[in-house]
Amino acid sequence: MDPVKSTISDGKRRASTSPEATTTNGSCSKKSKITRESPDPLRQPHFNAQKAEDNGIVLRKFYPPEMSNARATAYNNDELPRPIEVLQSALSETESQRQAIEVKGAVVHWFKSDLRTRDNKALHMASEKAKEKGVPLIAMYIVSPQDFEAHLTAPARVDFILRTLEVLKEVLAQLNIPLHIATVEKRKAIPGRIVELLKEWGASHLFANMEYEVDELRREAGLVRSCLENDIAMDVVPDTCVVAAGEIENSTGKQYSVFTPWFRSWIAYIHGNGHVLDIFEPPGMNPDSARDRFADLFESKIPDAPDGKKLSDEEKKRFSSMWPAGEHEAHRRLNKFCEERIGSYIAQRDLPGVAATSALSVHLASGTLNARTAVSSALAHSHTPRLDGGSTGMQTWIREIGWRDFYKHVLAHWPYICMNKPWKATYSNIEWEYNPAHFEAWCAGRTGYPIVDAAMRQLRHCGYMHNRCRMIAASFLAKHLLVDWRMGERYFMEHLIDGDFASNNGGWGYCASTGVDPQPYFRIFNPLLQSEKFDADGVYIRTWVKELEGIGGRAVHDPYGRGKGEEARLAGYSERIVPHKESRERCIERYQEGIGGTPK
């Protein structure tokens, strides 16, 4: 497959942010007129909502149009309950009733984004509960085609999940633990189907790890109560972060919105609560009788990817080779990184042409590796008990784990960022562009800026992009092209094998200056300077932009501006679609119009 091949539309199709003729998630939004019939001012859509509607920003099959600034502000001012608070209330209000339920025929663990047996808190709790009462442990995973669609899950990531389930199923089977994979076509039917399965298995207790996205928090809050109505106790525990969301507050008792002071508090919290780095043991062995009793569950098959999420045979082979699945592979990569590269991480992490990073993001996103495990392993390899000890490389890498936690904390506290809304509501007033030619040139890696084009081509071929290049590409779309950042956010999710909503949204918020700690006027990356600084020899560019393989020296960063234009043109490389200086000035002017203020 040619990773740079692109189909350019005639400009009429704007239902999806994907440049392909059909969306990668199989859903085509339809233009519809947004009404303002509700008398509730909190439910009046933002004045830019119709433009977003017409350009496919919101998946209207599942979600309402962009919310009003007033409703976002109400969340921000604690006037509306956050989904995480709704779940916490459900757990708190039902605690005594759930604890009174006796263990019956089985205990169930529901796998979600935690596809591992090692260091899995909810799985460990389920195993301990089962062993305590001498009943079998059953594992379950729900394949939801509509969830994949609604959450923009990349086909490459769906493939990775299904391959991981194959590995996980074998690991559990060695412990006599069945992994039942159930496909539920309608996402709203998932809670009801789970209750049906537990009743069918004679199970009285359900354990799951908490996820911080809005849909999941609301679903689990309802499921806790519906399980109780069926004499089933459901426990939902935080395990995806090193420090659970809500545990760190600033001096006024609020959630931090700036990373650096939050990170200092994160380190202090871990040092003061060492148990948060305790590793949970894998589940124990089920009795042999579980094999006979649940024989049909052991025969549960891993389904094929649903329509709209399928890969070609060539893509399956390629992604399987680049991204082997399973927790054993995650631990192999983690140990190799800690033994060989963590010490030099600070010096080389921003160089996309060097294999200097851990490449563990896909495992953190799918849960084949716990972030807590990653931090603990780094400390052990560095022979230090402190996060601010050891090499500067280790400290810098742990800081990146901290960024992952931070963005999940932000998501839990400001849930409207999960609803197509900027963190700071007034940033909704910025007028974005919806230029099909510009957007599709960016998607295809044909902007005329070599470092941007290399990044986008890497994404299409690998389902992955180096982090420094994610920032460069995102900044270019939002600030050079002024294309709505949500189109880029969605495109990344539709293609990233390591797609994680909180981290992806946080990264786009950082680059588009619409997220926490926005810096609209001086966070405008110069692609040429970024290219020369982080890919000085052009190794990364020449790897992905084949038209420039023969361009020597510094000209590879700007062939048309450095006397190699004819060679680049003959090789088929695009000229710049926008000039840098004028684009920067236009960006500053547009932000001033939308949010006011003066550039620093």
From TrEMBL:
InterPro entries: Crypto/Photolyase_FAD-like_sf, Crypto/Photolyase_N_sf, Cryptochr/Photolyase_FAD-bd, Cryptochrome/DNA_photolyase_1, DNA_photolyase_1_CS_C, DNA_photolyase_N, Rossmann-like_a/b/a_fold. Its cofactor is FAD; (6R)-5,10-methylene-5,6,7,8-tetrahydrofolate. Residues 1-53 are annotated as: Disordered. Keywords: Chromophore, FAD, Flavoprotein, Lyase. It holds the Pfam family FAD_binding_7. Residues 16-29 have a biased composition (Polar residues). One of its GO terms (cellular component) is nucleus. GO terms for biological process: circadian regulation of gene expression; entrainment of circadian clock by photoperiod; nucleobase-containing compound metabolic process; response to stress. One of its GO terms (molecular function) is deoxyribodipyrimidine photo-lyase activity. Residues 105-242 form the Photolyase/cryptochrome alpha/beta domain. Binds 1 FAD per subunit. The record marks W432, W485, W508 as: Electron transfer via tryptophanyl radical. The keyword Lyase applies. FAD binds at residues 345, 357-361, 397, 400-407, 498-500. Belongs to the DNA photolyase class-1 family. This is Putative Deoxyribodipyrimidine photo-lyase. It comes from Venustampulla echinocandica.
